Amino acid sequence: MADQPHRRDTAAQSTPGDPEAPTTATPAFPRPSVQDPDGPTVATPTYTRPPAPASPPPDPDGPTRVVPRYTPPAPPAAAPQQQWPPQPPTPTAPMPSAAPPPPTPPPPASAPAPAAPPAAQPDTGSQWPAASPQQPGWPPPGGAPNYPPGPPTGYGPPVRRRNNALIAGIAGGALALVVIVVVAFTLSSRGEGAGGASAGPSGSPAEVVTAYLEALRDGDAEKALSYSKAEPASTDFLTDAVLRKQNAEMPISDIRILDRDEGRPNFGFSTLKVAVNFGDTISEGNLSLTEVDGSWKLNNAFIKLDTQSLTGTTGAAKTLTLFGEPVASRGAAYVFPGILDVTSDNDYLTVEGDFTLDLQALAGGSSFLQPTFTLSDEGNDAVAQTVADAFATCERFKAIDPPGCPYRLDRPDAVEGTVTWGPADLSQVSPGYFDPKSMTTTVQGPVVMPVRTQTTSGQQASGEVNEYFAGTVDLTTTPPQLNLE
User: Fold this and answer.
1) Could you tell me the pTM of the whole model?
2) CB under 8 Å to 55, separation ≥6 — which residues?
3) Are 443 and 470 in contact (CB under 8 A)?
4) d(CA 109, CA 61)
């Protein structure tokens, strides 16, 4: 072979070992030889696979060999639909392995036996290079495709949060729309009565207010209370008899609806501005109503009268009566609007004040009493008589200082037991300040009283006692008692 300095022969490589041993050529992949056109022709050895030995003919009397049939694996199951919100994975039992294929029935005796598989070739070291390792997901050579395993049982594809959020938003909007439609249908299904509000079994708000005031006018306490949303704790003063007394003093007349709240009747609330005459007095108020079980009711059909400030007090407050009944110990009384009969059970006292409860008090639902106590005519007469009785006591004694007499004779030469007291002039004496807590009143004024006495010289002397009188009269007793200051 000619010298070729620019050619590198990779077909033969030296094998480590004995340097004196002959070089063994390793067969390589056949490839075209590059020859020197001027050199001799060199033949390149090629590898020829020896033919496989022929299979012996089948023995008709021998056993029949069953060749297993290849069954391709079942396709992966479809992943279950992922729910929203995501649920925790449900553990599942492992899938049972596929049953082995049924054996192939033996062929008829006349049929030739299937050919035996080719015998394994011995590794001579001169075979073709081994194939590269099997890559994941690629079908094995000569076999069925090896698909990647499917997702574990009970798990689905990864959740796309954007899609779930969009679906949740659409569902929420649809639900809100359904609620709005239901509410609108409910409101529209209510019948509109007078005043723009729904009319229940008891009528519209305007009709209920009118019927309530007419019941008061007619003295029907039970009917008037039927229009009330709340119930009173006591009905002692919510009676027909009390209504008759109120109407006798200030009859109800000229019921008028002045204004109506059209903004909230469909939501179960309504407010009406109402006017009515209590006697000659015009009263106005904003009355509120609430729909209860399909009927309109007044929030306040009666007034809670607070008498707590009168409880436990002494003096005049303990004598207070309402329609002839004591109220100081009640703490509260429940009444209809109109005039109240407030008096004292002590004949010496008069209760003064404005005791008319109008529609504005009905709208508020509560009120309180602020009575003012003064001496009645009978009380003034009793005080004057008490003072007169005290001075009359002087006339019954001949003493210089008669017992119980407001006056005494201030003359050093007067002889005890010779003094004669004349009638006193009380024309200028009058009651003064009345204290309702102590139930006492002051009395004051100049008093002139004639007197005669014998002196130590044996002579008769006459004159008068002219002094300014002051004292208090206690009205808690009968008759009243005079206390001298």
Assistant:
1) 0.55
2) 115, 116, 118
3) yes
4) 9
